[in-house]
């Protein structure tokens, strides 16, 4: 792989990767170049917390064993917190490297550009060809070669309590301004007189939820102008969106400063009747109490745009999956990768509420959310496609940015400061 000239913010990762790779002294396990069918060994697959259901994991394990009876597979669940540092160390070592790695789409470029992943361009047609989510493939392509494939996309829509809307006399909003007002009006109405009731769950520690609300209003982090990145959080359109978010933080939610632990299971607020609306991915639907669905008390709609009836541009969360360059068993890993992109596995991803990496199986996204998932993905967008973004603008930095907004600081001052930080880092 051709390693491009890297920005300073990636230097630590790149250096560690190079030093660890050179100093490990490890070698690929015996038989790593053999055909997968009769190869022995244990393939290690890293999936992230909350991504792949136990049912899907079992399917992968069972199918892999059928196809590779002499080999084993170990599925290891990783935590999102601190994953960049863990990948930095593990991928660099031939002794410690997993074989297949799920990686967030905002982090993929950072590791692709330093040679952490193997070239898997030749697998594109086998894994889905043009049905693979194009923007995710593009973000994983360097010098015309593909180093990761889309595992799933997290389309974000709104789950809402139909009964509370009816009691409060609120219609499903058709514009983003109506959505903002609905959150405020619903909280003020508090139809069932619940303590600390929120019209909408919106928390500074849930940056992708906040981003989806902001993106629908035209908010941008940064744009490329030639070879340079220009911060755009202080543009007039972004400022207006941030002011609306600050208004919701103040009058439309009780959870602006919720803890990270609280946010990880935020659907419980909805189940307990403390929240009237959630911004969430399709898999949130399976976490909502079935009784609420059975009673017809749950509805779904796309976050609207400024134009009535048109969905807004929300954040396209999700993950890619890559073959580690230091994989001890690349052929076995490729066998597992083919199973992951098979109809059986991709369908299970869809049934869990994700938009599968191979969109040909997207119809399996069940329920009301499935009816809007395709439109949401088609109108979604990513954060800046820069290797520096995945390193320097993770949850900590974004949480701080949105926390300042949630605490009522001057929006223009916060945005101008963040633009300066963005430009300083992205243009190193």
Please give the structural blueprint.
Elements: H1 11-23, E1 41-48, H2 54-67, E2 71-78, H3 83-90, E3 100-104, H4 108-112, H5 124-127, H6 134-139, E4 141-142, E5 145-146, E6 149-154, E7 156-161, H7 162-168, H8 176-189, H9 207-215, E8 222-225, E9 228-231, H10 236-251, H11 260-264, H12 267-271, E10 277-281, H13 290-294, E11 298-301, E12 317-323, H14 330-340, H15 343-351, E13 355-356, H16 367-378, H17 387-392, H18 395-406, H19 411-426
Parallel strand pairs: 1-2, 1-3
Antiparallel strand pairs: 3-12, 4-5, 6-12, 6-13, 7-10, 7-11, 8-9
Describe the structure.
This protein has 19 helices and 13 strands. By secondary structure, it is of the alpha+beta class. The chain has a six-stranded mixed beta sheet. Strands 10-7-11 form a three-stranded antiparallel beta sheet. A two-stranded antiparallel sheet has the order 4-5. The two termini are 23 Å apart.
Give the structure's gist in a few sentences.
The protein contains 19 helices and 13 strands. With about 425 residues, it is an alpha+beta fold.
Total beta-strand segments: 13
| Sheet with the most strands: spatial strand order | 2-1-3-12-6-13
Structural class: alpha+beta
CATH architecture of the largest domain: 3-Layer(aba) Sandwich
Q: What is the CATH C-level name of the largest domain?
A: Alpha Beta
Instruction: Choose one word for the global shape.
Output: globular
Average residue-wise pLDDT: 89
Number of helices: 19
Low-confidence stretches: 1-10, 19-35
CATH topology of the largest domain: D-Maltodextrin-Binding Protein, domain 2
Radius of gyration based on Cα positions: 22 Å
